[in-house]
Amino acid sequence: MAQIAGTYQLVEAINPEEILKAAGQEVTPVSLAGVTDKSSKLTVTVDGDNYSFVTTIGDNAWRREIKFTIGKAFEEEFKGSKASTVATRVGDKFVFKSTTGANVAERTYEFAGTTVTMIYNPGSAVEAKRIYKRI
Prior knowledge:
Helix content is about 10%, strand content about 60%. The protein is mainly β and about 140 residues long. The chain has a ten-stranded antiparallel β-sheet with strand order 4-3-2-1-10-9-8-7-6-5. Strand 3 (about 50-55) and strand 4 (about 60-70) form a beta hairpin.
C-alpha cells in the first residue's frame, strides 16, 4: 500500500481545456490557470476512516478542502451548485461520485509511490488528469 498522507505538488495537467468545456465552464486564462498552476498543492490527512483533501494554489490564494468519511455521503459545492458526494476506497485508489440533479461526475485519486494521479470525468466522454508528486 502506498503512503497516502502527505503534501503533493502539481507537476502536470492533461486535457485541461476540454474538461473545462465539458464541465460547462468558459475557457479563459484565469480558468486554465486554476487547473494548470504548478504552485497547486494537494495535502492529504488521514485519521482512521476520516480524510481531508486540501487543494491550494499559491500561498493559499485559492483553497478548497473536502472532509469525508469513506462510504458516507457529504455535500460539496461546485461553481455555486451543491452536489451529494460519496467517496469509496479500494487499496490505494479513492473514487468520489458527485451527483447534481441527473448529472454524476467522478474523480479518482490514485496513489502510487510518490505520485498521485487525479482523474476527473464530469459525466461525459471527456477525461482530464492532474499529476502530483510528493514534496
